[in-house]
Design goal:
Blueprint (H helix, E strand, L loop, with lengths): L5 E4 L3 H12 L2 E2 L3 E3 L4 E7 L5 E6 L17 E5 L3 H13 L3 E8 L5 E6 L5 E5 L1
Parallel strand pairs: 1-5, 6-9
Antiparallel strand pairs: 2-4, 3-4, 4-5, 7-8, 8-9
Length: 127
């Protein structure tokens, strides 16, 4: 069994699409728009087969995204090396995004950093 895709609602669909394309090499589809409900989405495909669906619709609730809460907490991207983790973390930070944990080796042996995207979602960068 495998996870087919992960989905998340976003406020700015095009900005979210562009973020994942710019920093993670996502390949977006042409998008979907349901004219009756005004639901919109893009499927973003990544190099090794994972997919992320970003979605938007009118009248969404935008709850605060606390760091320590229940539920899905982050998406992790494997970059292949500690050098790539360092480089992408620095690039994302220099572009104005918040780094909530700098690159380091964690107690369970992962080399990772964690950033916050344009809508407050946590993204982990790891080897």
């Amino acid at each position: 069994m495998k996870i087919e895709h992960i989905a998340m609602y976003v406020n700015d669909l095009e900005a979210a699409r562009d973020f994942f394309v710019k920093y993670f090499g996502a390949a977006p589809d042409d998008g979907y728009h349901n004219l009756k409900t005004d639901f919109r989405s893009y499927f973003l495909s990544f190099e090794e087969g994972a997919r992320l669906e970003i979605m938007n619709k009118p009248q969404m609730t935008d709850s605060a995204k606390e760091v320590n809460r229940t539920g899905f907490i982050h998406i992790a991207f494997s970059l292949g090396s500690s050098k790539k983790v360092d480089q992408l973390t620095a690039k994302i930070q220099s572009d104005g995004y918040k780094v909530i944990s700098a690159p380091r080796t964690t107690g369970d042996g992962y080399y990772e950093s964690c950033i916050v995207d344009l809508e407050g979602n946590q993204i982990e960068l790891t080897i």
